[in-house]
Design goal:
The chain has 207 residues and is an alpha+beta fold. The protein has 2 domains: 48 residues; 124 residues, 2-Layer Sandwich (Heat Shock Protein 90), CATH 3.30.565. It starts with a helix and ends in a 23-residue tail after the last strand. About 3% of the residues have low confidence.
Length: 207
């Protein structure tokens, strides 16, 4: 709508100066560029999700319990703790949290079989932090599967960067591996209660 209004404004406004026409043309160009960039970002997000379907329901943080249970059924022992005041976050943030845990569990199963995996979610006023750590493998690692486009640690790093978060992944000093991320999703400001109305003057008090 901004692009359309800016493009048609010069013909709708009488006596518009050349600088004014140039300004409207610049607004229209910037709006069209923003639309193009937004389409590109949406395309990347769909690719990272691997579904290509914007109508399919996306997993959220509430689905992590099921993910951990499935990991246990596949032989990966994992425990999850949640701290801080739990609240609903934007869908993109919750999906990113899910993918981080999902990929970390997959990597632990492949590269550190038999290790214990700990998952920590911490809600803060600024957003949420995710920490997934596994110990050293106690069994022989399986042969790594071919890399999947849009997945893996590089894919997670790109996903977190899109959300303007911070992402780190690497080995620890115990022979294990740690994946951590901080995602911004500020909590809505609490409405301040209005000051109580002054009590009505008591009978007989001077007015």
């Amino acid at each position: 709508m901004i692009a359309v209004r800016a493009a048609t404004a010069p013909s709708a406004v009488d006596g518009l100066t050349e600088p004014g026409r140039a300004a409207f043309a610049e607004i229209a160009d910037e709006a069209r560029s923003a639309l193009t960039e937004l389409r590109l970002v949406l395309g990347v997000l769909r690719t990272l999700d691997g579904t290509g379907s914007e109508a399919s329901p996306q997993p959220r943080i509430a689905d992590l319990d099921c993910l951990v249970s499935r990991a246990a059924g596949a032989g990966t022992s994992a425990t999850m703790t949640v701290s801080g005041p739990v609240r609903q976050l934007p869908g993109s943030v919750e999906l990113c949290c899910y993918r981080i845990v999902q990929e970390a569990l997959t990597n632990a199963r492949r590269h550190a079989p038999g290790s214990e995996v700990t998952i920590g979610l911490c809600y803060t006023a600024a957003g949420i932090s995710v920490l997934v750590a596994n110990g050293a493998p106690s069994l022989r690692p399986e042969v790594p599967a071919p890399a999947r486009p849009g997945y893996g640690l590089p894919g997670l790093r790109e996903r977190v960067a899109m959300l303007r978060g911070e992402f780190e992944a690497g080995p620890d000093d115990r022979g294990g591996f740690v994946v951590s991320a901080v995602l911004l999703a500020p909590a809505p400001a609490k409405a301040t209660a209005p000051d109580p109305a002054p009590a009505a003057a008591a009978a007989g008090d001077p007015v």
